[in-house]
Predict the 3D structure of the following.
Amino acid sequence: MTLATGQSLAQAVAPVAEATTQTNTEAPEATMPEAASPAAQAADPLGLGGEVRLLGNSDPNVRTATAIVNGQVITGTDIDQRVALVTASSEGEIQPDEMERLRQQVLRNLIDETLQIQAAEVQELPVSDEEVEASYQRLAQQNFGESPESMDTYLRLIGSSPASLKRQIKGEMAWSRLVQRNVSPFVNVSAEEVNEQLQRLESSRGTEEYRLGEIYLSATPQNREAVLQNAQRIIEQLRQGGSFVAYARQFSEASTAVVGGDLGFVRLAQLPQEIASVAATLQPGQLNGPIEIPGGYSIVYLIDKRQVLTADPRDAVLSLKQISISFAPGESQASAEERVRRFSEGVKEIRGCGDAERAAAELGASIVNNDQINARALPETLQSILLDLQIGQVTPPFGTVEDGVRVLMLCGRDDPVAAEGPDFEAVMSQLENERIGKRAQRYLRDLRNDAYVEYN
């Protein structure tokens, strides 16, 4: 089940956070070491010796999945329910080692979320329960229509809960208020910068722009191999049906993590050469990576592409007639195939949109009129077919016996006009948002650095 606020419900997990682990141990009795030679000091600058005996837990990566953030507890149940929001978007089975990494990532996300809520309360910007409930109800209505209670049932069915999603909503609202007060007022974009950007857009008219999603994982020479393996596991999960936006918000270390990795439309010249060469070969919906770049690895997903300041045929508004036949439960395969054959031949003989009702009645088909349909909103396969049709022509039949077989007849098309390009205010807003996003990430790092986090 996919939910939307402009994103899937499983995409409702915030970006990553850093935290420190505190371990209390008793110190062993110490002895005075002998003086070391200069060569030995160079080989062992900290004087640790050849063997290190760890006290207590010998594996720092194995922790109970709970934490106390400035006195507020994050429980294992909190983590389980938030993990369920992410895993609900993945069609493939998540392996145990991958699940453990996901749980640790979600814990860091919940720490961030807690810090944001706490900071908003300290600065007298609290989010009320009434505001959270109103936002939750709007989300439920968007996804479940007249039965918002169905979202409560869905959340419990996948192993999450309404309380977990409401806490997510509260964190997002708190963070938005903090950014509006402490970041946005201090970001300025000059008129000269806006005019320079407008000139660059005009000079690039007709060149292609790529709307990319990114997942960036930083790496050092010491951990490069481990990061590469993690990136490969993420790629595998995405190819098995995982949500790119959810994984970007969980794992990406770029500032775009908060928007699901969406870079927006960019030109190849704006991208690192390693990514630009890959992006140029992709079609919308395709994924590639891990791509080694300075400082780490990137996974890229091509969401869309277009030509700068040029009308895109996919922005055409179509008027369609959907002509379909359905099949009774238990209908034999031979009978269904014969009906599909007669339907396929019959729709080819329809003499324009005005003849559709008569022909449909003879074929035992039903008709639904679909006006004002944006071509871009249709599946990509149908987009290319419909944009090549003339008025009154139909697509090839598509569908299944279970869902019905149908065709689409083109009965009207309003082509887009050539784009005039963004205006001054739109470009200024874009530049401001980019700078606000970068400063907001620095602000969040400050909250983390000032926090007292204790793992249990």
